[in-house]
Amino acid sequence: MTRILKGMLFATTVLAPAGLVHAADAQLTIESWRNDDLAIWQEKIIPAFEAKNPGIKVSFAPMAPTEYNSAVNAKLEAGTAGDLITCRPFDLSLAMFQKGQLAPLSDLPGMENFSDVAKSAWTTDDGKTSFCVPMASVIHGFIYNKKAFEEAGVKVPKTEDEFFAVLEKFKKDGNYIPLAMGTKDQWEAATMGYYNIGPNYWKGEEGRKALISGKEKLTDAQWVEPYKALAKWKPYLGDGFEAQTYPDSQNLFTLGRAAIYPAGSWEIAPFKAQADFEMGAFPPPVKKAGDTCYISDHNDIGLGLNAKGKNQEAAKKFLAWVASPEFAELYANSLPGFFSLNSKPVKMTDGLAQEFVSWRQNCKTTIRPSAAIVGRGQPNLDLEMWRVSANVINGTQTPEQAAAETQKGLDSWYKPAK
Amino acid sequence: MSDTEIADIEAAPIRRSTRWHIAVFLAPAFLVYTAVMILPLIETLRLSLFNMVEGQLAFVGLGNFKVLFSDPRLSADFWNALGNNVIFFIIHMLVQNPVGIAIAAMLSLPGLRFAAFYRSAIFVPTLLSFVIVGFIWKLILSPIWGIAPGLMDLVGLKSFFAPWLGKPDTALITVSLISVWQYVGIPMMLIYAALLNIPDEVLEAAECDGITGWSQFWKIKLPLILPSIGIVSVLTFVGNFNAFDLIYTVQGALAGPNGSTDILGTLLYRTFFGFQNQMGDRSMGATIAAVMFLIILAGVSLYLFVIQRRMRRYQF
Description:
CATH architecture of the largest domain in chain B: Orthogonal Bundle
Number of helices of chain A: 18
Structural class of chain A: alpha/beta
CATH topology of the largest domain in chain A: D-Maltodextrin-Binding Protein, domain 2
Strand content of chain B: under 5%
Number of strands of chain B: 4
Number of domains of chain B: 2
Shape of chain B: globular
Number of strands of chain A: 10
Radius of gyration of chain B: 26 Å
CATH superfamily of the largest domain in chain B: MetI-like
CATH topology of the largest domain in chain B: MetI-like fold
Radius of gyration of chain A: 23 Å
Oligomer: heterodimer
Order of helices and strands of chain A: HEHEHEHHEHHEHHHHHEHEEHHEHEHH
Helix content of chain B: over 70%
CATH class of the largest domain in chain B: Mainly Alpha
Order of helices and strands of chain B: HHEEHHHHHHHHHHHEEH
Helix content of chain A: 40-55%
Distance between the termini of chain A: 84 Å
Largest sheet of chain A: 10 strands, mixed
CATH superfamily of the largest domain in chain A: Periplasmic binding protein-like II
Strand order of the largest sheet of chain B: 1-2
């Protein structure tokens, strides 16, 4: 009995002041869809900030990526969202800003560290106001198993013909599944397929802008050809790829059973942790040797301020820190594959990440075509492209049908400004 | 009849009128049910009559329903989901319920050994979470890690294996059969209870008349368990048209490939809550929910007012 009493006394006298101090801290919550990065935020990024800013406590609250947008919208409308909102690029965050849910950040200290291109994903159409601090972009390409390439005696393919020759060689040898990709989850077919190889055909920004202005249509040859190339992938995918999910593909590759993985650079960190063989990367192959290469270097993630958040000052401090070169270096090295958008060059230690980023020197960069402006309406062009890309690889739709269907969906709501 | 007696009779109803305990005992259930079922239902039906007009929620009458049935994209999605849902229901009616009845009939045979064991073993999947069922079957049927290809190889049927969950023509049937596997215990239990309720005298009388074996089942037992089969059918109907969870765990919210396993529940989820880059549309979601409610209401009414009234009941 006395022990319990003593315990209660201890609790009320010693622990209570600790609680009071805690209550005086500003508590910030970050809403995010990056549940894969929870450990890195908790162990590296947040401690680095808290060490410099006593009195501000930050917690990282991620949720499932596919549910993020609707959940965070509901929270914002109900007024229960965290102070910091992770921003999807382009139209989705723009809609939040227009509803007054995100605060304008143009005059935030540190915003001068970003180029206009980096900020373009989180800026109003007139280019005047920015509303999220750019954090990172992701680059598409192919990751390959170096050991498998040595065994088969093939070189890294540069052109489309070489690419299919390599796949054919792996298929004949039979030791490796040539390409690790499935169509069950649909998004891989578009994100790692169509958006990955497509820019070489529609000439990156040139084609993307022509699509927005209405000069080109999704049924034009340069937009249909990537589907034709995807259709040719079918025989090189694993047995039963129709029922192969995204984690299945990741495991097939990291277990060393597949030779090439159509990738986004966000795979680098998890792959490094799983695979015990050397990996290399190559950009999407061009049509003819000597052609200009285009890569998808997609502004993917930013951080915005909840306009109705309770701790605006503390949140702004955190955002200013996110805009600093210090954060850029910490983030890019904790999460190799998420490339900093900061104009001050960031030193990266990861070899594979360096390989991805080196393509920026020779190739022209673009973003995913369905992300900006043409992704605003119903039916959602991004989701439509997921579906038809999977259909094309499964062989249930021809490339022409797929293109016609997406164009029809787009025509139903999008009228290009003339 | 004396005056006092008349006074008593007149006074009695007044004394009885304040039976507070009835209201008190009903209140918790009534309040909880109203709060979690009736109000949300009314609120959903109300929301289906409203939509955003210039940023404000405004009354649009039946406008949402008009859009749902006339918009080429939405109506195509809706009819596809409804068609798939009907197939989902038909497979349950053709497979789950007959199999459930057959198992119950076998279990109720006198002298069957380990009957209690079979009964529990067949009922266990019903108790499992749909998440577990979904993942177990996804793994079993996985062409990469699953045991289905290996097992079929052992008996020389490897060539018949296909990635069923990934093909548009087989995915819906596969998912339906997984659901049948999970829920076959419910018709079995209900029918089993009904079969046990048949008095032995009736069966003995039938045997005296020379009706045994299969013909006993068809001529004596089946007519006696028809009301239970009716209830099972209604439960299946309501359950199937409200289904969502299993499809969501096995095929995801997109209900692929190419929408071939999309049923009303998944369509409602995607429309109401949104998915990836598609924003949620609450009014349209509520409209689909209202249509689902009407479909189920129509089905149940059809059963209650047309079929159940004609069913013959036997009293023992």
